[in-house]
Amino acid sequence: MCLIKMCDVKQVSETKMPFSRDITMRLIQEYEKYPELYNVQDPLYKNKTKRQECLNKIAISLGCYGHITIGDVKKKINGLRTQYFNEMAKRKKSQTSGTATSDIYTSHWWCFEMLHFLENSAPVRKGESNLDLESVSQQYSVLTGYRAAKKKKFFFDCFDCFTLSFYKTVLKLK
C-alpha cells in the first residue's frame, strides 16, 4: 500500500492564477484520471480525504506551470463543470421533437469535447410525487363529469332561450 504524503500546498490562493489553454488542458487530463472527483457512483466519491488527496495530486502535477493551489484547482474545475453542463443543457433544449438535425445546438467551446467524461457524472434525479394518483384520477373524472353536465345544461338553457325568443318573434309576426 502506497501512502502519499500531503504536499504543503496552500488551500486558498492569495493571487489569482491565470489558466492558459495549456494549463486548462492539462488540468482536464489530470481531472479525468480521478473518477472519485466527478463520478457520484464511485465508492470513493464520498470520501473527503481521498478527494482532497486527488486535488492535491492535481495541484502538484500542475506545479510546473507556476504556483497553483488546491483552491485554484477547485475553482477552475467548478467553472469547467458549470460551463460544460450549461452547454449540455443548451443542446438538450434544442433537441425538441420535430427539430431538424441542422438546428440542434452544437457547442463551439474549445474544451467541450474533452469534458465528455462528465456527461454521466450528474445523474438525473427521479422525481417523486406526494399525490395519491388514484384519488387524483377519481377527482379528475368527477370534476370532468361535472363540467360536462354543466356544459350540457348551459347548452340547453341557451337553446331554450333561443327557441323562446324565436317563438315570440314568430307570434309577433302573425
From TrEMBL:
It holds the Pfam family MADF_DNA_bdg. SMART domains: MADF. InterPro entries: MADF-dom (IPR006578). Residues 26-123 form the MADF domain. Signal peptide: none annotated. This is MADF domain-containing protein. It comes from Hypothenemus hampei (Coffee berry borer).
